[in-house]
Amino acid sequence: MSFVYVTITTTLSSLSIFNRFFVWSEPCSDKLSVQKMESDSDTTPTTPRKKAKLSKVKQHLTSKKHQAKMEMRKSSGLLQKFFPKTSASTSGLSSNEDTKLAAAELAMTYHTVKHNLSYNSQDCSIKLNKIIYVDSKTATNLRLARTKMEALVTEVLGPHSLQSVIDQLNKDNVFYCLQTDASNKKNIKLFPLVVQYFTPKSGIQQKLIDFYENPDESANGMFSAIKNSLESLELPFSQISGFSADNTNANFGHNHSLYTNILEVIPDLIKGNCHAHIVHNSVKHAMNCLNYDIENIILKIYSHFSVSACRREELKRFVALAEGEFHEIKRHIGTRWLSLLPAIDTILLNWIPICNYFVDLDVDCPMVIQNLLMLDDNCVSINEPDRTQGRRATRRGHTRRLTDTWDFKTAETNLNIFI
After folding, report:
1. Which residues neighbour 227 within 8 Å (Cβ) at sequence distance 6 or greater?
2. pLDDT band at 276 (very low <50, low <70, confident <90, very high)
3. Which domain of life is it from (predicted)?
4. Could you count the other beta carbons within 10 Å of the beta carbon of residue 368?
5. How far apart are CA 224 and CA 258, in angstroms?
6. What is the pLDDT of residue 13?
7. Which is more confident, 196 or 171?
8. What is the DSSP annotation of 230-282?
9. What is the mean pLDDT of the segment spanning 260-266?
10. Would you list the domain boundaries of the chain?
11. At 155, is the pLDDT very low, low, confident or very high (cuts 50, 70, 90)?
């Protein structure tokens, strides 16, 4: 073994990287080396040549270069600790303890993924646990940084979870429903592929089996991508019992769509489109017969109060005068149709205070809201004979009285029709 080390030292002595990373398995101090050489020189006849070599060694020990190398060796670990030993593991644990340690690392990784935690936060938690649970051998020997945790997710837990779903579907010939929907990320179009099935032991299960990129959103393009994905996962296409997706023409068109393509292969395919979205679209088209654009009014009222903290506080004052409970006005997003009903409900809860607020604005009230409330230019306030004082009188504590020219009931009915 010593011959191997001497050979390697002679060959790589010119490389600086060797002095930094390669260290002896049993390093000895410089003084011991010199003392050994001096003791050898005492027992053997000394020649001028040997004395010259000994002096060169002593001279090298005092050089700055050697001292720097020694400091680097002290800060570096032994090379042997990266290789397994035959009798015991590198950490000094038994095989049973190594198994427990691996199970703990996988459990922590699964916990991180299940609760959508950050890899960086768990990296910090592992270091903290070593300080808190000093009596636990498993906690102190845990080595689980973010890089290793990510590798366990992508290389161990992910493939195992996917394979367990595939085995469960193939084992008992379970029928499953296929679900997919397009998701855009900038100029990339992604498609998740989800299966829904039933087992007597676990009940209804929904599992994500694939997440692929497909720029072709046509019916034929989506059908080919789904078929290729199922074939790569070795899932039988004939066991599909239903198909669920968004209500687009490419998914559920009557003549040619993804649904009709699957229906040609599976004649008894169950159609699982979104009926709630269909009802919403029907009501939305029916609202075109009204004199008011409900969505525009909702957006107008929200934008009026969202840009000013003073307006919000003024509305809260009108709510207090009406002895009601203030409800924060919610925002409706045009591309998120489910947000429209909560926005309307919130406005109806604050309806009378909102009407009082816009009456008090007088000519500053937006025209869209004036049309909704059917404001008449001949409106006269009983408690405020001088209209020129308008808003200043209100600030002094005077309160306007709602007149009959503001048809709040009709406007409220228009909102309730949408619901």
Report:
1. 237
2. confident
3. Eukaryota
4. 15
5. 10
6. 47
7. 196
8. HHHTT--GGGEEEEE--S-HHHH-SSSSHHHHHHHH-TTPEEE--HHHHHHHH
9. 93
10. 2-82, 95-168, 172-273, 288-418
11. very high
pLDDT category of residue 80 using cuts at 50, 70 and 90:
low
**CA of residue 175 relative to chain centroid, distance:** 31
Q: Could you tell me the end-to-end alpha-carbon distance of the chain, in angstroms, rounded to an integer?
A: 86
| CA–CA separation, 238 and 173 (whole Å) | 10
Q: How far is CA 376 from CA 126, 284, 355, 386, in A?
A: 69, 29, 14, 17
Closest among 190, 173, 180, 192 to 235, alpha carbons compared? 173
Q: Which helix (H) or strand (E) holds 209?
A: strand 203-213
User: In terms of pLDDT, which residue wins out, 243 or 60?
Assistant: 243
Q: Contact, 156 vs 106, CB < 8 A?
A: yes
> What does DSSP assign to residue 153?
I
The CA-based angle 313-316-321, given to 5 degrees, is 130
State pTM to two decimals.
0.57
Average pLDDT, the chain: 77
60-69: pLDDT as tens digits: 888 888 888 8
Please count the other Cβ atoms lying within 10 Å of the Cβ belonging to residue 56.
10
Phi/psi zone of residue 186: left (φ > 0), alpha (ψ -120 to 50 degrees), beta?
left
> Which contacts of 216-221 are long-range, i.e. CB under 8 A and separated by 24 or more positions?
217/182, 217/189, 217/250, 218/250, 219/250, 219/251, 219/253, 219/256, 219/257, 219/258, 219/260, 219/261, 220/261
Q: Provide DSSP, 89-147.
A: -TTS--HHHHHHHHHHHHHHHHHHHHTT--HHHHHHHHHHHHHH-TT-HHHHT----HH
Can you tell me the distance from the alpha carbon of 308 to that of 313, in angstroms, rounded to the nearest whole number?
A: 9
What distance lies between CA 97 and its chain's CA centroid? 34
Q: Which of these ranges, 148-152, 284-288, 376-380, has the smallest mean pLDDT?
A: 376-380
What architecture is domain 172-273? 2-Layer Sandwich (3.30)
Q: How many CB atoms lie within 10 A of CB 12?
A: 13
Give 1's pLDDT tier (boundaries 50, 70, 90).
very low
DSSP 194: E
Burial class (CB in 10 A: 0-12, 13-18, 19+), 353: buried
